[in-house]
Amino acid sequence: MRRLFCIALIAVLAALWGLPASSQALADEIPRTADGTPRLDGIWQALTEANWDVRPHGTGHALLPELGAFTAIKPGLGIVDGDELPYQEWALARQQENFANRLDLDPEGKCFMPGVPRATYMPHPFQILQTPDLVMIAYQYANAVRTIYMNDPGPAPNYSWMGWSVGHWEGDTLVVDVSDQNDQTWFDRAGNFHSEALHVVERYTPLSPNHILYEATIEDPNVFTRPWTISLPLYRRVEDNIELMEFKCVELVEEKIYGHLRKQTDETEE
Amino acid sequence: MKQKNDRYHSLIWLTVILATAGTVSSQEPSLFEASYEPPRTAFGHPDLQGVWSNAMLTPLERPREFAGQAFLTEEQAAAYQAQRRQETFRGDRTVDVETDVSHAYNDFWWDWGTELVKTRRTSLIIDPSDGRIPPLTPEAQARRDARLARRAEHPADGPEDRLLRERCIVWDGNNDAGAGPPMMPSAYNNNFRIVQTEDYVLLLKEMVHETRIVPLDGRPHLPGSVRQWLGSSRARWEDDALVIETTNLTNKTNYQGASENMHLTERFTRVADDILLYEFTVDDPAAFTRPWTAQIPTVRLDGLIYEFACHETNRGMMGLLSGARAEEAAAREVASE
Amino acid sequence: MRTITRALVGQIVLFVTLTAGAHHSFLAEFDPDQPIQLRGTLTKIELINPHSWFHIDVVTESGAVETWAIEAGTPNTLFRKGINKNTLPVGIEIIVDGYRARNGTTTASGRDITFPDGRQLYLEGSAPPIPE
């Protein structure tokens, strides 16, 4: 309430003095470095259901009937501008095949690093540490991490799971160019996929001290007929003493991945 | 691999002084603060940022042959390094099969480093003064015996029988050396990156992209009911040293025999432009009869940390388990004939 | 002095081998009693961790082509030596010395990778020549 009162007071005073009102006031509160660059430091998390499916979608069954309502598909408005993904014809068929086999194929189920942009909207927090030369983003999920180089690091030596990221500021927006991701990650649990030609340009724009507008343009001429964009807000985790906790999930998936190679103990043997 | 002259000369005085030091102590602040003033971050803290390598040939524990000798002489160090370079650049087929097999990759991939620590110590352990890990407590010894017995009886029933690094969970040492923190050298990618902000220090270890983000704000460790592979770390500045305390470990990493109640203290001090002195003290009365401390002068690496996605492409585990099953099947066939 | 140095060498080498990442798992996956030498054309290199994989086509005595997968070291070390996805010498002929996999497939661990003329792959210019 006190905050609303302050905003109202500022708005009244601003109106009296002919100054811009509340959005400017909020923008002025965004933490900044000494040279005026926004500080994106902190622990953030998305609140969408995009990790289920980046497109608008309704409720659906969990992957296994015995799970019942546990891990059932939650409905979401989607994060894709225009709602649809502009797949090439062959690629749409492949996405549907992915969906049908997602229990086996979804890399998230195997604790594989999620790539960009999926890492941003996983149901886990992530932490940004910002310096003039590097912006580090550490994701709670699978202890995944990215180094965003603010000075040209040269070409990527290899394809990788979390890509090769080069950033720069445009006004109050951190723009990150992400290239050279391998073709093993998905955009979500619905089998939306890409090739090694994937090129992502992210934009992080603080809207207030406690939320960032995240936008990304996705381009992949091998899979899609044109680029497409996503956008979603990121919310600061404001709890006292909030920190990323450890979600090292390899242990949790070993049976799934290696169970078929386990030694079978025959109960009749000594 | 020749080291840069300026780096070498900047430490001549250091090695001479240390070489003539009588007793070994875990801290030698007077040696380091006199002549070097580290650059500072915008927040006034010493700037420890960059990529550092702890690749070096010096063993953790002093070999028995050097009992009583804390430092190699210059001649000994030079001879050892020359011998090691000769061996590791291939051609030495006179070694036995076991040693050969253990060097089983073209040395192009090993990156132990070609140098002993610049102080020419005969061990990374500086306290106790014999350079060796103190004796384990009876309970820690019993735990170790049980682990080794289990491993001998069940070498590959399933992934949980294998080393943590074979499982790509954390990078542990061989046999029962266990996994850190602390950050110990291994066969390659002995690199870590430090990034500092006003409130946090980030440590990114290349092997299995282990990332610790350590708060500087004095908050307490996680509650005792939460145990983590890398523990719960908290940092503070003590003059020009970054001190990180870690608790809340699990009973799965067993660093050199440690228990889940290990209390680890790490100290990072920049003592030269390209030397970050890394020291750690293991305090675990449940496992060791006294605390012990090791010191590694890590060296600046002119390069980047690359992604080390281990679990995602862990064909070795597939090969290892399928190999064990194949050998069992072959043995069963032979037995039934 | 020399005796002590050799002893130190032996001890440290032993220490190094005991803590070498590959020792324990190497023996579990590959068989030191099945050394092998293969000569073939490098068709593909997978720059993945913890081990990169070199794929070679080997022409057997009968004239058939066998595809072998050779386990090699971490690509991160290759990157630091200037070898990366943009500079891989695919298509060349190489000789591989290594040890067969225990699971009976055409898989081996690559100990040495050399050109037919004796030069070692990738070590040119960055390491002393191999002792005679």
Describe what this molecule looks like in 3D.
Helices cover about 20% and strands about 25% of the residues of chain A. Chain A has five helices and nine strands, in the order ααβααββββββββα. Chain A has helices at about 1-15, 20-30, 90-100, 100-105, 250-260; strands at about 40-45, 125-130, 135-140, 145-150, 165-170, 175-180, 200-210, 210-220, 230-235. With about 325 residues, chain B is an alpha+beta fold. Chain B is built from seven helices and ten strands. Chain C has three helices and five strands. Chain C has helices spanning about 1-20, 20-30, 75-80; strands spanning about 30-45, 55-60, 65-70, 95-100, 105-115. A five-stranded mixed beta barrel of chain C has the order 1-2-3-5-4. The longest helix of chain C is centred in the first third of the chain and has 18 residues, at about 1-20. The model of chain C is unreliable at about 1-25 and about 120-130 (pLDDT under 50). At the B-C interface, helix 4, helix 5 and helix 7 of B face helix 1, helix 2, strand 1, helix 3 and strand 4 of C.
What order do the helices and strands come in, and which of them pair?
The complex is a heterotrimer of chains A (270), B (337) and C (132).
Chain A lengths: L1 H16 L4 H8 L12 E5 L42 H12 L1 H4 L20 E5 L3 E6 L5 E5 L14 E7 L2 E7 L19 E10 L2 E9 L8 E9 L13 H9 L12
Parallel strand pairs in A: 4-5
Antiparallel strand pairs in A: 1-2, 1-9, 2-3, 3-4, 5-6, 6-7, 7-8, 8-9
Chain B lengths: L4 H5 L2 H8 L9 H5 L16 E4 L20 H15 L8 H6 L22 E3 L10 H16 L37 E6 L3 E6 L4 E6 L16 E7 L2 E7 L15 E10 L2 E9 L8 E9 L14 H22 L1
Antiparallel strand pairs in B: 1-3, 1-10, 2-10, 3-4, 4-5, 6-7, 7-8, 8-9, 9-10
Chain C lengths: L1 H18 L1 H9 E17 L6 E7 L5 E7 L3 H6 L12 E9 L5 E8 L18
Parallel strand pairs in C: 3-5
Antiparallel strand pairs in C: 1-2, 1-4, 2-3, 4-5
